[in-house]
Amino acid sequence: MMISNSVVLPLLLPFIAAILAAFFPKRMAFNRIFSLITYVVTLLICLFLAQQVFANGALVLETGDWQAPYGIILVADPLASVLIIITQLVALATVLNARQTLHSYEEKAYFYFFFNLLIVGVTGSFLTGDLFNLFVFFEVLLMASYGLIVLGGRKAQFREAVKYILINLFSSILFVMTVSFVYGITGTVNMAHIAQRVPELADNGAITGAAILLFIVFATKSALFPLYVWLPKSYIAPPTAISIVFGALLTKVGVYAILRVFTILFPGLSDFTSVLFLVIAGVTMVFGVLGALSTNNVKLIIAYNIIPSIGFMMMGIGIGTATSYAGTVYYLINDMALKAALFLLIGVLVTLAGTTNLKQMGGYIRQAPWAGWLFFIACITLAGLPPFSGFIGKYLLLQAAFDNGHYLLGAVALLTSLLILFSVLRIFIYGFWGESDDSPPSDSKNAAARFRSIVPAGILLLFTLFLGLGAEFVLPYIDVVSHSLLNPENYITPVLKE
Amino acid sequence: MEYAMSILAGLLFAIGVYFLLEKQLLKVIIGTVLLSHGAHLMILTMGGLKKGAPPVLEDYISSYTDPLPQALILTSIVISFGVTSFLLVLAYRTFKKTKTDRVDQLRGSDDD
């Protein structure tokens, strides 16, 4: 009982931090330290929860002791418990970095309030056990992201915020409508209960319609092929610290939702949905990487690189075997940490150069050798070269693709990886290498500030290195996750207790 | 009655989408409001409109109205209220900063 109660802690602690930040918006030292402590403690709690989940199966918290199909429940299953760990890690890195990349007026404009609330939303979406609460937590994280995207109030931010908010608002309204459809069809919003009811239903057409509507909603949130246009520019409009959380967490919540809904609610993909997913995955990869190649804005290159990663994860969901789910989960975890590290390091480069145009850069590795080489490691991890962690996720995905006869998609994925490597190495070659025009020696104050970007980026990259080199240690856990995705009863039984 | 409600929700949705495609920010916001009203009506309809007495917690009641859609709508209304007020502030600040209330005129380079 005590242990299942602790499922609420990863939500509660950032929420307390958010409330305190709302009451003391001008006390920066207090906010920084308190947020830092919160995320260290929450990370430890998440590690403890994960250990419990992997030892004894999913933890279920029935709030207010209302029995499962009726009350609101929080479920920490293997997938959710892995993802909340990475979320706290990214949050920790962002808090460490926020002081450097934000102006003090931006930090005082309720940054910590919005940021902590965003983490509450993300963690909540991972943990919640019913579809309507998924909508509520989506809305919590979206409201926080609306606040963050206009933080500082520059002109470009307003322009991007209008698009970002309208797209997300429309998909949220579609989401709540679809939840009501699902409620109309199955008579419940509890995910485990829906999963139990769906096979009993005679009316297949209605439930397929609801499933596709849900897919459209989550595809918008996770920026899949035709619905990705809003993403790149709106992610680079706010300051770097905010780009980090956006790039690392927001789209991944959409991927998580697709993974959850199409493994538990509507398991056993029909041929049509499987083909649809695979086609969308392939096209998403190609279009994302083409975007990354088309621009000279370094932040935009990294933002565009979010899209092909989503394509890779989608590929694993579309294939739908144990290996491909393992690949998707591995890639998801790796990508959350990696995108945060890339945005951190690109922030250093942009601060040094004073511009985002790649054509006006060169030779910054002399001023920031650590940032340069960490960026190089991040690049080859992103492209998936062995022995780094990107390789193992991609290897699993490609193995699943070739084993199931999706040769064309496998080829597209390989080509995309090559182009990703090309697009990010361009930043390394022209930005960090190359001639510098008599760059002035960096003063010690800047060096101290840079330190605050490099340390969190180093922590995140160490984590991805651990995922890559310690694959022997990590893979058994990933296998548990992918098997729990393949067998929905592992999720349904602990929730409904039958 | 459910059919009439569905048609009304559809109508609100159609008008909402039309306003969403307008260029003036204020009309766009009105569009989002209409959309969310349509969605709320849809939730209410999905639970079935009137099946009996209100859901009061008493033992002998056997026919009562489904309370869940109403709880969902309440949450959803609060959220859409918050989003609408945020959008109004955003539109005002956008107008102050960019001197235009038209979406198609919010152009400019990324570094300004």
Describe this structure in words.
The complex is a heterodimer of chains A (498) and B (112). Chain A has 22 helices and two strands. Chain A has 498 residues and is an all-alpha fold. In chain A, helix 16 packs across helix 21 (471-486) and helix 17 packs parallel to helix 20 (444-469). Chain A has one domain (1-496). The mean pLDDT of chain A is 87. The model of chain B has no long low-confidence stretch (mean pLDDT 85). Classes of the chains: A mainly alpha (498), B mainly alpha (112). At the A-B interface, helix 7 and helix 8 of A face helix 2 and helix 3 of B. Chain B: Keywords: Cell membrane, Membrane, Transmembrane, Transmembrane helix. Chain B: This is Multisubunit sodium/proton antiporter MrpC subunit. Chain B: It comes from Aureibacillus halotolerans. Chain B: It is found in: Cell membrane.
Per-chain topology:
The complex is a heterodimer of chains A (498) and B (112).
Chain A: H1 2-5, H2 9-23, H3 28-56, E1 59-62, E2 73-76, H4 78-101, H5 104-108, H6 111-127, H7 131-149, H8 155-186, H9 191-197, H10 204-222, H11 231-236, H12 240-265, H13 271-293, H14 298-304, H15 306-319, H16 322-353, H17 369-383, H18 389-403, H19 407-432, H20 444-469, H21 471-486, H22 489-496
Antiparallel strand pairs in A: 1-2
Helix pairs in contact in A: 2-3, 2-6, 3-4, 4-6, 4-12, 4-16, 4-20, 6-7, 6-12, 7-8, 7-12, 8-10, 9-22, 10-12, 12-15, 12-16, 13-14, 13-15, 13-19, 14-16, 15-16, 15-18, 16-17, 16-18, 16-20, 16-21, 17-19, 17-20, 18-20, 20-21
Chain B: H1 2-20, H2 25-46, H3 67-98
Helix pairs in contact in B: 1-2, 2-3
